[in-house]
Amino acid sequence: MASAGAGSQASALFEAPSAEVIAGALVTRARKRLANTTDAALTELLADTVFHERKRLDEGRADSELAYASRVAEAAQSLRAMSRDEMQTALLHLVDSYAREIHNPFSPRAYTFATRVMPPVLTRLLSASRGRDILLGPLARTHVDPASRIAIAGPLEHIAELTRRGTVILAPTHVSNLDSPLMGYALYAAGLPPFAYGAGLNLFSNPAMGFFMRRLGAYTVDRRKRNALYKDTLKDYSIEVLRRRCHSLFFPGGTRSRSGRLESRLKKGLLGTGLAAWQENLEAGSANGEVFVVPCTLSIGVVLEAESLIADALADEGKQRYIIMDDEFSEPRTVAAFVQQLLRLDARVHVTFGQPLDVVGNRVDLQMRSLDPHGNPVDRRGYVTDREGKVVADEQRDFLYTERLARKLCDAYRSDFVVQSTHLAAWAAWEALKAQHPGLDVYRLVRLAPEQRAAPRAAVEARIATALTQLADQPRTGPATPARILDEAVKLFANFHRVRALEYAADGQVRVSGELTYYYRNRLDVFGLSSRAAP
């Protein structure tokens, strides 16, 4: 449960800087960076920004972007003039626009209010279909208790101590758009202070979600903006809030896992800002300037957007798409129905906080010491300083350190992942379907006629048994026997999605949806399971 001091920690750790203060800080950072940029590189940066943003704005511009469009036009004009001063000024004006769009001042008052009425307000936050519903939430009686469905585990006291003595980056896996409010609840329930976190612009379109997220630590990320200047501004923002001792949460996988697979490759951009902030703190001699990273693994038996996500993954295999504009989450009433079902059924969500790491990937003990792979203490400052203790800048070195940290996070995701009945049953059913149609690839399997997408129940249960043997050391929840695991999965799938991932047929077969089954099957892909032992 939450500690009594959680609300006071919110006030102490979040100074709620204004948009003007943040914009000024980010413009200063950008000005220093641009001062060391060659004329050719400056021109290329501006051209990249103008090209991408003109294209995006031509495809559709909201009324709120009129002022921004004017600044893009100003940038294009300065590009034609080829004056370094004009180009730099135009770039800094764009940075100012980005900073004001990204930043949403944290409100300790709103946080105190929200935590005072937890968990009812969480339920309303997740399920409100209209803006006014959230206002009625604290007064509404509800029999839904999130704590009975959300299991939180990990070295919570250790992490809490690190938040008091330094700054913590929380790096969760990313499954659904519900992850942000879920993590907010998990932090509160674990007795940890609030964290700043990036949320996609489309997420703020839900009136109830947007109202609270803007006040509870969320900053806005517009994934339609793909230009380098915007990405640099996001990184600068992350460094700035970390240096201000705002604990931060971001999903290093980047976006929701469209294929359903557990993250095995991470984006290094924001992840590297922890190392950058720590080095700046060392240079400045900042008190409590240490920065730590905590992996967090989410395991959810059913995912609201699974149908849209897997369809998008299959249609766009091998390409990166930054945002899915039309999925189940875009309709608030769909979210409401899904969450009510999730919380009322025995479909537990597992949030597992992992062992804390330093910003170069070493495990951190209770005394805040970094430990090498053999458990021996090491001086982490030595990774970035010379013999005199002065910080030495080295981009290539820092890139390799961030790569190492990313590998350690992926290792933690794999070891901490809680296997659920829906994952096991979907994997087994998919493997049994493959055995029924040898030689067919994924695309042909999902396009089989409905009467062909089936496998004998005995074959599915046998493959569940095979998976259980291979996953004997993995955290797991749900029934123990293959038959009961399959029964539970079929029951859960029957209550979610328009198409059932698995269902029983009268002829003793297990019918497979195709795409949805493949999505849930992919959650176990990282374990490299083999079904050869199955008949």
List keywords for this structure.
535 residues; alpha/beta; 3 domains; eight-stranded mixed sheet; 21 helices; 49% helix; globular
> Regions with pLDDT < 50 over 5+ consecutive residues?
1-13, 121-142, 318-326
Helix/sheet category: alpha/beta
Total helix count? 21
Helicity range: 40-55%
Mean pLDDT: 84
Radius of gyration: 24 Å
Strand runs, count: 14
Q: Please outline the major beta sheet.
A: 8 strands, mixed
Distance between the termini: 47 Å
Task: Tell me the strand percentage band.
Answer: 5-15%
Number of domains: 3
Oligomer: single chain
Note down, in words, how this protein is organized.
This protein is α/β, with parallel strands linked by helices and 535 residues long. 49% of the residues lie in helices and 10% in strands. It is globular, with a radius of gyration of 24 Å. 47% of the residues are buried. The N terminus is likely disordered.
Protein topology:
Layout: H1 6-13, H2 19-35, H3 39-59, H4 66-81, H5 84-102, H6 108-116, H7 120-127, H8 131-136, E1 150-153, H9 156-165, E2 167-172, H10 179-189, E3 196-200, H11 207-213, E4 218-221, H12 228-243, E5 248-249, H13 273-284, E6 291-300, H14 306-315, H15 332-344, E7 349-353, E8 357-358, E9 363-364, E10 370-371, E11 377-378, H16 395-416, H17 421-436, H18 442-446, E12 454-456, H19 457-470, H20 482-494, E13 502-504, E14 509-512, H21 515-521
Parallel strand pairs: 1-7, 2-5, 2-6, 3-4, 3-5
Antiparallel strand pairs: 6-7, 6-8, 9-10, 10-11, 12-14, 13-14
